[in-house]
Structure formats: structure tokens, C-alpha cells
Amino acid sequence: MENTSMLREWFERVDSEKTGNITAIQLKSALAVGNLEFPLSVVQQMIRMYDFDRNGTMSFDEFVGLNKFLLKVQQAFSDLERGLGYLVPDDVYKGLVKIGFSLDSPSFYTVCEESF
């Protein structure tokens, strides 16, 4: 979702207490509305990454920042997937580098080998 007014509506829908901030559980619900399913532990990590005021929740502006990042990730991997429905480790590595991660190539491939 790129449109700010749509994001605001999306955010306000899950900010049930109208505090201007959402919890990890509320963020998980908001992401699910956009067909983005993540384990709660991953959503909690997203909040830690984008919780710039360090209050343990996510404000609308922080939510917008997270949304921009998720769109960037989605686009990077969509460009690499080539209609196959999956990514090989080389594609994952390229995608992560494309969105700005600095990775040690041998370590990355070691983790991939151990995971599969």
C-alpha cells in the first residue's frame, strides 16, 4: 500500500484504542489485512527496527516507514523470482544486497546450506 490515506485508514482500523500507536499484535493484524502473514516474533522484530521513539509500539509514521521497507523488499524479490514461484539462494542473496543489506557471501551460503 503506497497511498498515505489508505495507509492511515489501514492503521486506524487496527488502532482499536485510538492511541495513535499499535502493538505487535495489532501490527500483525494490519499486515494480515494486506496478505502479509508473519509470526509474532518477526512482527516484534519489525517494531524494534522501526520504533524510533523506543516506546515499544508503532506510530503511524513508523508504520509508513515499515511499509516502504516491505514494498522495497517485495519489489526486489518479485524482480528476481522470474515467475518460478520460488527463489534460489543466489536470488535471495542478490535481493538482500539490492535492498541495502551488507552480507558476507560465504557466511550467507553456509547458512543456506545448513537450512536446507
Query: Span between N and C termini?
Result: 33 Å
Helix content bin: 55-70%
The number of helical elements comes to 6
Question: What is the CA-atom radius of gyration, in angstroms?
Answer: 16 Å
What structural category arises from helix and sheet content? Answer: mainly alpha
* CATH architecture verdict of the largest domain: Orthogonal Bundle
CATH topology-level name of the largest domain = Recoverin, domain 1
Sketch the major β-sheet: 2 strands, antiparallel
List SSEs in N-to-C order: HEHHEHHH
Shape: elongated
Please report the first level of CATH classification, the CATH class of the largest domain: Mainly Alpha
Fourth-tier CATH superfamily name of the largest domain: EF-hand
Mean pLDDT: 89
pLDDT < 50 stretches: none
Query: Beta fraction of the residues?
Result: under 5%
- Strands, count: 2
The largest sheet has its strands arranged as: 1-2
**Tally of distinct domains:** 2
